[in-house]
Amino acid sequence: xxxxxxxxxxxxxxxxxxxxxxxxxxxxxxxxxxxxxxxxxxxxxxxxxxxxxxxxxxxxxxxxxxxxxxxxxxxxxxxxxxxxxxxxxxxxxxxxxxxxxxxxxxxxxxxxxxxxxxxxxxxxxxxxxxxxxxxxxxxxxxxxxxxxxxxxxxxxxxxxxxxxxxxxxxxxxxxxxxxxxxxxxxxxxxxxxxxxxxxxxxxxxxxxxxxxxxxxxxxxxxxxxxxxxxxxxxxxxxxxxxxxxxxxxxxxxxxxxxxxx
Length: 261
Hints:
Number of domains: 3
Structural class: alpha+beta
Strand order of the largest sheet: 3-4-5-8-7-6
Mean pLDDT: 81
């Protein structure tokens, strides 16, 4: 009797180990799987998936076969709202996405008064942060500028600001500091990283973003902390819009941008 119980325990242990190995192999690192399959900015959107399960892997495989315009749509949907089986169903059924590029421009409405520069600065200031990074010994490494992208406290800044850092924190416009808890997504090639900050949502003011490409000659402003000089403003114009193969559109500006800005 004791021998039978002993044998059953051994068999049960083997089954547990076997099932654990199978389970651990069901997920795939998204960065490895999408490498060189999409333009760099799409990889940034899709990297928010982290570890791929079988449904997400199927979604990526189907996405690769779509035209670039539809790839962009689905990649942005994943970045904004996360992956869902409904999204997989849409891509399986071959639902085409109408992109605005082929739509003729509508008649321009009556132009609104242009917002003054001081008014713009006051509006965006609560959305901006300064990012401080430190090494393992707690020594200061470097700083950069960033901004809130979501109400839960996610911040966008440059990838190089966090490179080689062991810890980091942000300083908000009211002078308070809050720790960065983890990296949500990153794209080293585009020098962009999305970070999660431990901060109550009532103190977060996400910056509203526009997907509209500006026109050459439009006036722009740059706001940040160049060389540690907080809340510094400089201005310029959009000097060119450049299309880089396998990367996307780049906006070239004349405003000076120093480290930390």
